[in-house]
Design a protein that fits this description.
With about 160 residues, the chain is mostly helical. A two-stranded antiparallel ribbon has the order 1-2.
């Protein structure tokens, strides 16, 4: 998790501003938008400020402990892997779709799949993206100087 180039925080009272005048968020958020992948932009008007600050603090702590930290996004992973088959999060078949697809990706998960809820399914998709990253089977979106998003290999 990173802040957009030029921002030191997300507080509207702070004078920090994007380096690029018309920026709406981080570069990879703009790339996701162009790919048709919805996301919340990281800016001073975001509705997920608390979540962003929590992610920044978690990254700081894990990095201090010596871990490599990557940013992933379960919705992007699902769309890249399954295309437009992915039901909307609030759709009635969403959870069953995830429970059907995850065991195809993660060996040994099938016996536990009935215990999964939406957040744990998202966590499993994130873990799978991390696994792909460890196998050099991912791409990154964004500008490395600002922070990148790791996604499964994109179709060429």
């Amino acid at each position: 998790m990173t802040l957009p180039a030029g921002l030191c925080c997300l507080e509207e009272s702070c004078e920090c501003d994007f380096y690029q005048p018309q920026a709406k968020g981080r570069q990879f958020e703009l790339e996701l938008s162009k790919m048709g992948v919805g996301c919340f932009f990281t800016n001073k008007r975001t509705i997920i400020r608390g979540l962003i600050y929590r992610g920044l603090e978690l990254k700081r702590r894990l990095t201090k402990m010596g871990f490599e930290v990557i940013e992933v996004y379960p919705y992007a992973t699902k769309l890249i892997l399954f295309g437009d088959q992915v039901p909307r999060r609030v759709a009635s078949g969403s959870l069953s779709f995830h429970k059907e697809k995850l065991p195809e990706l993660i060996p040994g998960l099938a016996p536990c799949v009935d215990m999964l809820d939406r957040p744990s399914c998202d966590a499993a998709f994130n873990a799978y993206t991390g696994y792909l990253y460890s196998k050099n089977s991912t791409d990154s979106l964004g500008d490395p100087s600002e922070g990148t998003l790791i996604v499964p290999k994109l179709p060429r």
